[in-house]
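Final report, closing paragraph on structural work. Over the funding period we assembled a curated collection of sequence-structure pairs, and we close with a single example.
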Amino acid sequence: MPQESLITLNQAAAFLALSATTLYRLTSARKIPFYKVGHLKLFRQSELEAWLVDHKKEMLPAPGSKWTAKPSFGSMSATENGVGRL
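Its predicted structure, as stored:
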């Protein structure tokens, strides 16, 4: 069975859509799986994919940004969900 190759910090940062600095901070805090070979920090893509799944969070709008999606209140009426109350 072939062994998965390791990728560099810059390659891992690109894969995760993070800056290299942010990824370096995550490794320093031991919050993401990595291997250290000398001064190099290396990663397995499969471990990064698993880390992404484990650390997935619901996306919320940034403070001050406009929310484009309409919230769903299910079957509640406007008065049941607080809309229209003073």
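The longest strand covers residues 40-43. Residues 47 and 53 are 10 Å apart (CA to CA). We thank the funder for supporting this effort.
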